[in-house]
């Protein structure tokens, strides 16, 4: 039965395979006995391997154990969880924060607390899968609006039954397109139509905004958007997620959010690593400066070569290819030329928009990026993308 289903996936070039590496993540990695340039990680600031971050994880693991033992409501909260939450709340300038084991779980857990049966959710067409699943699980009616189109959101708000509880759901920085949600417009609509806005800033945290507080800082919307979620597994180099917001919301989540209540708390080492990463991010601001310099260098290089990029304004630089088969062929050629940047295909992105999702980090050197551009040109010609 599974063989038949796998064959069907293969017929549409939609088979996924795990790629085994033999080194830590970083600007280059060891794959099949050779060094390749990695251009697909979300470790935007290189903090997953930063000595201070690794040390914090080791120390917390030695002190508090490899695992948390149970859900925090069952076996108590360890200091690394509390320390991380107060560090996040201070950084994000909110009353409080709550850690989740992953961003996926946070989205499943928060949306259902914000809205339920009888409510209406308006979600961006390109929202992350975990947001979509959270919307489905909530039991609310779920409508999709055109990507980043606040006029469409307004049209849907006008049409709803008066007084119906409504939640607008969006990524801050879109994971597969690298562009931003129109947060000022969405926040204004939420206010005008008495709706709630929920922002997933998984990719914006550490990357966007003057001090890395994310997409909400980028738009100077902190007072208008009182809570949001983000992840610890991307620019913060660790694993897990957080919701930052008013104390009442956090207390409500502790009391009702099933993916918080019914899962083992994240490992203490991961919490300590993320807290250390927040510190490094703030005392090494040059990392973000290098990230943006690399973003400019690489996006200009790709455009000069003639690649079609999305309207990205971030270190996520997707190259639009077309069919899944073309994207796979391109990714294979890239790997043959020493660059790892896998094809992203449906259902992760809409049909016909398969792509190579390139991400640059602060840790890529100019030489590595220039070497990668040569690989993109050669692979693009061989795969017929250029
Ligand atoms: N939201 C967005 C926008 C994401 O890109 C991701 C991860 N790819 C998640 C949530 C899920 O986060 P996690 O990996 O921590 O489960």
What Rg, in angstroms, do the CA atoms define?
Answer: 21 Å
Strand content: 15-25%
Order of helices and strands: HEEHHHEHEHEHEHEHEEHHHHEHEEEH
CATH C-level name of the largest domain: Alpha Beta
Strand order of the largest sheet: 5-4-6-7
Question: Please, what is the average pLDDT?
Answer: 96
Number of strands: 13
- Tertiary shape: globular
CATH superfamily caption of the largest domain: Type I PLP-dependent aspartate aminotransferase-like (Major domain)
Residues in helix, %: 40-55%
Total DSSP helices? 15
The structural domain count equals 2
For this structure, the CATH topology of the largest domain is Aspartate Aminotransferase, domain 2
Structural class: alpha/beta
Largest sheet, if any?
4 strands, parallel
Poorly predicted ranges (pLDDT <50, ≥5 residues)?
none
Task: Please identify, by name, the CATH architecture of the largest domain.
Answer: 3-Layer(aba) Sandwich
Distance between the termini: 39 Å
Modified residues (N6-(pyridoxal phosphate)lysine): 234
Pfam families: Aminotran_1_2
Catalytic activity: 6-carboxyhexanoyl-[ACP] + L-alanine + H(+) = (8S)-8-amino-7-oxononanoate + holo-[ACP] + CO2
Family: Belongs to the class-II pyridoxal-phosphate-dependent aminotransferase family. BioF subfamily.
